[in-house]
Amino acid sequence: GSAYSSKVFRVTFLTLAVSVAVPLLGVTVLLDCPIDPQPISLKEPPLLTGVLEPNTKLRKAERLWENQLVGPESIVNIGDVLFTGTADGKIIKIEDGEIQTIARIGHGPCGGCEDEPTCGRPLGMRVGPNNTLFVADAYYGLYEVDPDTGETNPLVSTKTLIEGQKLSFVNDLTVTRDGRKIYFTDSSSKWQRQDYLFLVMEGTDDGRHLLEYDTVTKEVKVLMVGLRFPNGVQLSPAEDFVLVQETTMARIRRYYVSGLMKGGADMFVENMPGLPDNIRLSSSGGYWVAMAAVRPNPGFSLLDFLSEKPWIKRMIFKLLSQETLIKFVPKYSLVVELSETGSYKRSFHDPNGETVAYISEAHEHNGHLYLGSFRSPFIGRLDLQHV
């Protein structure tokens, strides 16, 4: 009897499986895919050995102002006063531990991703020479904000056509010491910030990369095109070149803005152990790079696995939302310090993102590393003397 019942079970199970799988397959074929993924060729990720050896140093970070702010992407300081922009469109000031909203570029309601285009999303932030804030809002463009009055002054609007095209995803900026020039990135000409996962997974090179805004002539120039998710930008200490993180390709490009190489570009760091987000100066003359995701080696890197399989990406995006997909991205946190020539000096890890997850920026101030995040409800702070 038992052999018969197990046979019946097998047949019933197979029939059920087929009856579910066939329509599902049919539906998947018919469903629209929001992205048109391109195959990308990535080299095997670097081994996490030597200075990249995994550690738990980021777990020593303290969480500041927990649950009083959400998604503090980029952090700057004027003296000991901190400023950041949050997921609900606010530009906030933190003085003597007190949080105050000083400005908002967009308007409410502000809640989920669907509100972002009207609410605004301040991303990259910098301090200009007269202690004004320069802010890159993903949806509205480049702004100057008075940190005392909260007055906002638009510099480059996303509605303005630049070489026949509007800006779609203004991401980060870096300012010359004299405040004359602002170099900034437009991450995509197709996707907005709320669809950043589509941008990463599609892998197309539609980023307009690097633009230059002259605060005196008010002119905008496109310096570089054809990048895959241009993201964080940083002028070199000598202001002779700008570094641009090319997130999808796990590398950093260098564009020369002065000197003999002016107008030329080359590779600064290739094949990084993660997807670089923002980049900021370190006190040693090098650079802090925060990784939005890691490419573990040894280990399994989903991103690398999918890079040359657009058909799998299509299936995934037909069936799952971005919010669901983000849950499958390992919460491994990594910040690396690069030397002035782009070699790795040290690395700080939090293997499961236990203390700090989704790090978007590492901003050094007064012996501490302030850790911004595009999702977490706090700012991390790591004491550099004790790691």
TrEMBL record:
Protein family per UniProt: Belongs to the strictosidine synthase family.
Subcellular location, record wording: Membrane
Name of the protein this chain belongs to: Adipocyte plasma membrane-associated protein
Cellular component aspect of the GO annotation: endomembrane system; membrane
Membrane protein topology class: Single-pass membrane protein
Pfam families documented for this protein: SSL_N, Str_synth
Domain Strictosidine synthase conserved region: 171-259
Keywords: Glycoprotein, Membrane, Transmembrane, Transmembrane helix
GO molecular function (one): arylesterase activity
Membrane-traversing stretches: 12-31
Database matches in PANTHER family: ADIPOCYTE PLASMA MEMBRANE-ASSOCIATED PROTEIN, STRICTOSIDINE SYNTHASE-RELATED
Main localization category: membrane
Gene3D superfamilies, A to Z: TolB, C-terminal domain (2.120.10.30)
SUPFAM superfamilies to which the protein is assigned, alphabetical: Calcium-dependent phosphotriesterase
Record InterPro entries: 6-blade_b-propeller_TolB-like (IPR011042), Strictosidine_synth_cons-reg (IPR018119)
Gene: Apmap
Highest taxon, organism lineage: Eukaryota
